[in-house]
Amino acid sequence: MSESECKKQLCPIKEVMDFLGQKWTLIILYNLSKVESMRFNEISENLGVSPRTLTKRLGELCDKGLVNKKKFNTIPPRVDYSLTEKGKSLVKSFSELNDWAIKNFI
């Protein structure tokens, strides 16, 4: 697909890269891929990301169907985040890219 064709139609790879290229997005997905689920504070502490940014990124990931948000009716409130099947399939894709980067880029 030529660049002009890509601009005329919303090029799928560009949309995906724009979304995944946002700061913290891939790192959040990668961290969630290593566990069954994580609580908000666990993610925040593991990554050192601000609560505001983490809230925004997790919301976007949930909206795209890549992350599940499970609320528990407890006091204090508890919310767990985990990858959806769609999210797991995406992680597989960039795991291969990570392997390539280690072998060829770093």
Written description of the protein model:
This protein has helices at about 5-10, 10-20, 25-35, 40-45, 50-65, 85-105; strands spanning about 40, 65-70, 80-85. It is an alpha+beta fold and about 110 residues long. It has a single domain, classed as Winged helix-like DNA-binding domain superfamily/Winged helix DNA-binding domain (Arc Repressor Mutant, subunit A, Orthogonal Bundle). A hairpin with a 5-residue loop joins strand 2 and strand 3. The model has no long low-confidence stretch (mean pLDDT about 90).
Brief descriptors of the model:
106 residues; 13% strand; three-stranded antiparallel β-sheet; 6 helices; Arc Repressor Mutant, subunit A
What is the first-to-last residue Cα distance?
A: 30 Å
Q: Architecture, CATH level 2?
A: Orthogonal Bundle
The CATH topology corresponds to Arc Repressor Mutant, subunit A
Q: Report the radius of gyration as a whole number of Å.
A: 16 Å
How does the helix and strand content classify structurally?
alpha+beta
Biggest pleated-sheet summary? 3 strands, antiparallel
Q: Output the strand order for the largest sheet.
A: 1-3-2
Content of β-strand: 5-15%
Shape estimate: globular
The tally of domains stands at 1
Question: For the record, what is the CATH homologous superfamily label?
Answer: Winged helix-like DNA-binding domain superfamily/Winged helix DNA-binding domain
The low-confidence runs, each spanning 5 or more residues with pLDDT under 50, are: none
Helix content: 55-70%
